[in-house]
Structures are given as C-alpha cells and as structure tokens.
Amino acid sequence: SVDCVCKSSGGSDRRAKAAHTHKPGEMPSEAADAKPAEAKQDLWQTILKDVSSHTTSRRFAKKTLLVLGKEGAGKSTLVSRLQGRKYHREEHPQGTGLEYTYLDVKDDESGEDVIARLGVYLLDGNPEHRNLLSFVLNKDTVQDTSVMIVVDMARPWLMLQSLEYWVGVLQEHIASLGLDEEVSQSMKDKLVREFQSYSEEPVSTEKREKEGEEGDVLLPLESGVLTHNLGLPITVVCAKCDAASTLEKDHDYRNEHFDFIQLNLRKFCVEYGAGLIYNGKEGKTKDVLYRYLLHRAYGLPFPFKATIAERDAVVVPAGWDNPTKISVLHGGLKTIEAGDAFSKHILPPASRKTAAAEEVEAEDEQDFLQKQQQVLASASKDGDASGAAATRRSGSIGQNQPLTPSARGVSSPSVQRASASAQPAAGGAAPASKDGKNNDVLANFFNSLLNKKPAGGAAGGAAPTKAEGEK
Fold first, then answer.
1. Which of 242, 266, 276 is nearest to 330 (CA)?
2. Global pTM exceeds 0.85
3. Exposure of 328 in the CB half-sphere (CA atoms within 13 A)
4. Does residue 214 have a pLDDT over 60?
5. Which residue from 88, 120, 209, 254 has the least number of CB within 10 angstroms?
6. Closest CA to 321 of 150, 194, 146
7. pLDDT at residue 82 above 80?
8. Is 249 helix (H, G, I), strand (E, B) or coil?
9. Of 349, 297, 155, which Cα lies nearest the Cα of 238?
C-alpha cells in the first residue's frame, strides 16, 4: 500500500491511497504511479487559484483618452508631465494630425507595478484634422473612451469658444456613428448615475453604482445640470494658470475677471457633466489630474476633494458642482454682471501686426547706396544756395540800411561818438560800390570795437577823443 499526502494552500490534507500487491522484485504498475502525479497537479492548480483570488491587481479593459484643444493650448506639454517626463518640442512637430502615447496605471498598494496602460490620442487643433476622429471614436471604442479638453489661461478670451467648438465636433461625430439607441441611452444613463451617486469618499465608481442599484435613493438632477449629455466622460483642463500674473500686469485683469472666468467654466462643465481642473507650471494639481483621469476611465477611487479657494489650483469633480454653488462667485463681481456675455469682459489684447505677418523685401544694397548718394548731393546743393542767399541778404542790408551801434542796441557813449565820426565817411562813400565792399567796412569797424580793451572808466572816454583827433 502506497500513501501520498498533499497539503493544499487552504490547510486541508489530501490523502491518496494506491494499493498494489506485487511479488518481491516486481516493479509497481503504471497505474499506481499516475495517482501521485495527478495529486501533484491538483496541488499546483489549487495554489494558483488561491493566489489569483487573493491578488490586489485587477484586469482592466482597454480604455482610451482623447485629448482635444486649440493649437498652442499646451496639450503635449500636459501629457508629458502626466507621464513624469520633460516636454521636448522636437518630439511633437507641428502639423502632426494625430499622436499616440499612453499613461501607466500603477497598482495602489505597490505604487510601482504597472497593471494597465491608458491609451492617449492627441488630436491636432487644426480643424482640417477633425476627420481623424474616426480612428479613435467608432462603434467599437466609443463606450471605452473618455475625453480631455484643454484650454489655457494665457488666452482666456478663447476658452468658451474652444469648448463650444469641440463639444460640437464630438456631438456631430457621435451622431454620425449611428449607434444603437440602447447603447446610446446606456452611455447617457451611466453619466447621470455618476452625477447622482457622487461622494467625496474615495470609493470606486463601480462600487458606488452597485450600492445605488441595491436600494440607495438617487436624487433627481437639479435644473441646469447635464442639459447636454453626450454620454462621454469629459474633463476640462485649464492649463497655464501661472499666466494669470501676466494678465494682471499687462491687461489690467482683476480678481473679478478670474472669478468671472471660473464661473463660466464651471457653468459649462455642469451642463455637459464634465470635471474641471486648473493646472500650471508648478504642477500643484498634476497628481490630482492623473488620478482623476484614471477615475473617469476605469472607475478607480478618487481620493481628492473639491477645492475652489486657490486661483491656480481649482479642482471640481463631475457631480460635486451645481448652479447653487456656482452662484457663490457672484459676490466677487463688482463691475461685472454674472449674466453678461463672456466676450464682453474677457477681451483679446489690441491687435498688433507681428513681424511674421508682414513680409518685407530687402532692397538691393547698391540701389540703396545710390539713392543715398543722390540725397546727399541734393542736400549739398541746397546748402550752397542758401549760403549765397544769406550773403546777398546781408549785402543788401549793408547797402540800404547801414548798421549803427544804436540799431544793435549799443548805448555806450564812446560807441555812439565813434559811429558819428564814421557815418560821414560812409555818407561820402554813398555812391554805389561793388557787392560786399561796404560789408567789409562794417565788419572791420565792429571788429575794432570788440578788440578794444578799456583800462577803466576814464580810459573808456579818452579813446574816442584820440580817434577824433586822428580824423
């Protein structure tokens, strides 16, 4: 008799007995050897099942994140930061219609083991590439796709325009898929249940929905909530929030402008069932955004609470907000009415023509130098002509109106007497003379006056007397 004892992972003993009578020197039969082999195989299967049932890892279905936004909104930079690596512009050339990458989904307990990968598609902001949506959103993938729309605080005047454009593109594309009414309604109902069963406790979406189905009463949605239900989980990310300081400095934005922006973004998100998260260079909400994207894609627990206190770190999960909470922002509006059009107060800066917009053709170097030579030559001729005219004018003054010291405002007695003695000579020389001859006489006369150096008050009166004696 051969006994085989196997101890399973559950602690129970299994005894397999095989009886075989044989004569001395005779080998056991093959049937007797098969019994212990089967027992060993059962042992390993039991161990594997036990490990599989107690593992913390879960098998996730293939999920996709579609990233939308205008060109320059910061989509590629944002995804690079979520991946934990630095953004390199050369890795994301302009004009790439559709890019693909992924985000690692790590196990909560170990923090290192990758248990799934969330596929990420980045659609270029150029409207010409919108037809590429068919490669991401189709009948087979639409139920496993979530959407992230990126706007940026550096250009707040484009925010609502961008959001309305992209939800319009999504709505039009989903309508073109021709989904079954049952599938479409199931997607919308799931979004409604997420809103109704929202809780700030870190519970998975799957467990929350299950508890709701088991008897918890779900309150109806408030007025103005989920009025546009696309059936897709949407997350709105306001990137480049650090640009707020630039808006204050260069465009006179005040706190009420930022409250008005937040008010309109939250109002949009409530209508479309979207979550809202602000993000900037400092990365205050990077981990929050990462966990929230996984929450919306896989239903994993979201351990963060809503916060609206910090201007650059706003976190509003879908289901938390409602029109009543949004109305709190009305108190911060002083010169702006809450119901005013977004474009009335959030205006683009004055249009400036950039160098890139204007094409300037450089003139040939030789042509430019030749023109400058002509300008200089013309200026030289004009200078000579004006000099000759000035000479003629001064000559006519010397001939017709002899300058006297009294005419120049000189009131010194000695100068007046010297002028009186000089006038007869000038009168005697009244007959016409050549141009400029009288000017030389007057110039010599006044130069002699300027060159004299009186020795004192008495000497000042003796000098003219001597001149008169000489005459």
1. 266
2. no
3. 9
4. no
5. 88
6. 194
7. yes
8. helix
9. 155
Kindly indicate the confidence band of residue 365, based on its pLDDT and cuts at 50, 70 and 90: confident
Q: How far apart, in whole angstroms, are the C-alpha atoms of residue 373 and residue 351? A: 39
Looking at the DSSP bridge assignments, the partners of residue 236 are 149, 276
Cα(123)–Cα(149) distance, rounded to whole angstroms? 10
- Do 268 and 160 touch, CB atoms closer than 8 A? yes
For the stretch 24-73, pLDDT in tens is 555 555 555 556 666 666 777 777 776 555 544 456 789 999 999 999 99
Average pLDDT over residues 325-330: 95
Residue type, 317: P
Three-state DSSP at 433 gives: coil
Strands of 64-69's sheet in order across: 98-106, 114-123, 64-69, 145-152, 234-239, 274-278, 315-316
Residue 73 CB contacts under 8 Å (≥ 6 apart), including other chains: 125, 150, 151, 152, 162, 239
CA distances to 7, 14, 20, 31, 44 from 17, in Å: 15, 10, 10, 12, 19
What integer best gives the mean pLDDT of the chain?
Answer: 77
DSSP 79-139: HHHHTTS---GGGS-TT-SEEEEEEEEE-TTTSS-EEEEEEEEEE-SSGGGGGGGGGTSST
What DSSP letter does each residue of 375-410 carry, written as one string?
HHHHHHHHHHHHHHHHHHHHHHHHHHS---TTTTT-
**How many other C-beta atoms lie within 10 A of the C-beta of residue 66?**
23
Hey, how many other C-beta atoms are within 10 angstroms of the C-beta on 13? 8
pLDDT > 90 in the chain, percent: 45
